[in-house]
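Priority: medium. Attachment 1 of 2:
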C-alpha cells in the first residue's frame, strides 16, 4: 500500500491535469517538487506518516535541506509554492485541517529587471529575421518573430496555432493560452504580410514526397512527427538568429514577449490593455513583465502631475 503522502500527491497531480488543465511544463514541475517533498517526509517519519500531522517546522526543515543541497533561493521558493498549493488542495478536500505551508515565509529574492532589447533593436531583428544567410526557412522564421514580438504570444501558444486560427476578415488571431483559456490578439499588417508570404512555401512543404496534411500553422523543416514545430525548435531558431544579429546570448522566445509588453508601455499603452493582450490573469503579473526606466517615469510625472509644472 502506498504511503499517504505519495497517494495524495498523485491525486493532487491528477486534479491539476484534468480539472485545471495544467500545461505539461507545470505538471512536470509540480510532479518533481511535490514528489521530492513527499519523499522527504517518508524518509524523515517513515511510510506511516500522516499529512495531517505535518507542521510548518517540518516544511522549514525541508527548505533547509534544499539549501544544504546548494539550491538557489528562486528554486527553493518554487518548491515552497508547490507545497503550499498541495496543502491548500488537501485542506479544501478535508485531508488536513489547515495549510501549515502558509506559515512559512517565502525566501526573499533579489529584484532585478530583465534586459529587454530596445525598440530599434527589435525592429531590426524582426525585419531581418528572414535573411537567407541565417534563417533555415526564411518565410517561416519571419512569422515566428512577427508573432512573438508583434503579438506578444507565449512560445507554446505560437506552436499551437492552426491555420484556421488566423481570422483574416476580423484581423485577429485566436490564441489558446494557459488552462485552455482563449483570447483574440490583433493581427497587425506586418504579421499578416509575413503569414501570407509563408503560406505558399508551407503548401509546397506539405505537397512533398510524403503528401502530408496538417492543421498546424508552423511546420518543422524535416516534417518529423506530426509536422508541427516544437517549442524547443522555436527557442533554437530565436537564439540562433538573434546571436547572428548581435543581440545578447540570453535572448529567447519569452524575451520577445517581454519586449512586446515593455515597448507598448513605453509608447503609452494602458497596463490593463497590455494585460489582456498578454493573457495574464492578474495585473501584478503584467507589471512584472513590463518596465519603465527612471527617466521615463520622470517624463510621465512632469507631463501629467499638476505640481510638477
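Attachment 2 of 2:
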Amino acid at each position: 500500500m502506498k504511503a499517504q503522502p505519495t497517494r495524495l500527491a498523485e491525486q493532487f497531480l491528477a486534479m491539476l491535469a484534468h480539472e485545471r488543465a495544467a500545461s505539461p511544463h507545470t505538471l512536470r514541475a509540480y510532479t518533481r517538487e511535490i514528489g521530492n517533498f513527499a519523499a522527504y517526509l517518508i524518509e524523515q517519519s517513515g511510510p506511516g506518516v500522516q499529512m495531517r500531522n505535518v507542521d510548518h517546522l517540518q516544511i522549514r526543515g525541508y527548505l533547509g535541506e534544499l539549501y544544504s543541497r546548494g539550491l538557489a533561493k528562486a528554486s527553493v521558493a518554487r518548491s515552497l509554492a508547490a507545497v503550499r498549493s498541495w496543502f491548500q488542495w488537501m485542506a479544501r478536500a478535508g485531508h488536513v485541517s489547515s495549510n501549515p505551508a502558509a506559515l512559512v515565509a517565502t525566501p526573499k529574492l533579489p529584484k532585478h529587471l530583465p534586459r529587454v532589447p530596445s525598440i530599434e533593436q527589435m525592429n531590426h531583428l524582426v525585419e531581418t529575421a528572414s535573411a537567407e544567410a541565417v534563417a533555415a526557412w526564411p518565410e517561416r522564421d519571419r512569422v515566428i518573430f512577427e508573432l512573438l514580438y508583434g503579438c506578444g504570444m507565449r512560445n507554446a501558444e505560437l506552436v499551437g496555432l492552426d491555420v484556421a486560427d488566423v481570422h483574416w476578415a476580423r484581423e485577429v488571431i485566436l490564441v489558446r493560452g494557459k488552462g485552455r483559456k482563449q483570447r483574440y490578439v490583433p493581427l497587425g499588417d506586418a504579421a499578416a504580410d509575413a503569414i501570407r508570404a509563408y503560406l505558399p512555401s508551407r503548401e509546397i512543404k506539405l505537397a512533398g514526397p510524403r503528401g502530408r496534411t496538417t492543421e498546424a500553422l508552423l511546420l518543422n523543416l524535416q516534417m518529423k512527427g506530426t509536422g508541427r514545430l516544437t517549442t524547443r525548435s522555436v527557442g533554437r531558431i530565436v537564439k540562433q538568429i538573434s546571436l547572428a544579429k548581435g543581440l545578447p546570448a540570453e535572448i529567447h522566445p519569452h524575451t520577445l514577449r517581454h519586449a512586446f509588453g515593455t515597448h507598448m508601455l513605453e509608447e503609452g499603452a494602458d497596463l490593463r490593455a497590455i494585460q489582456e493582450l498578454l493573457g495574464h490573469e492578474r495585473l501584478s503579473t503584467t507589471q512584472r513583465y513590463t518596465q519603465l526606466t527612471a527617466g521615463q517615469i520622470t517624463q510621465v510625472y512632469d507631463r501629467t502631475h499638476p505640481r510638477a509644472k
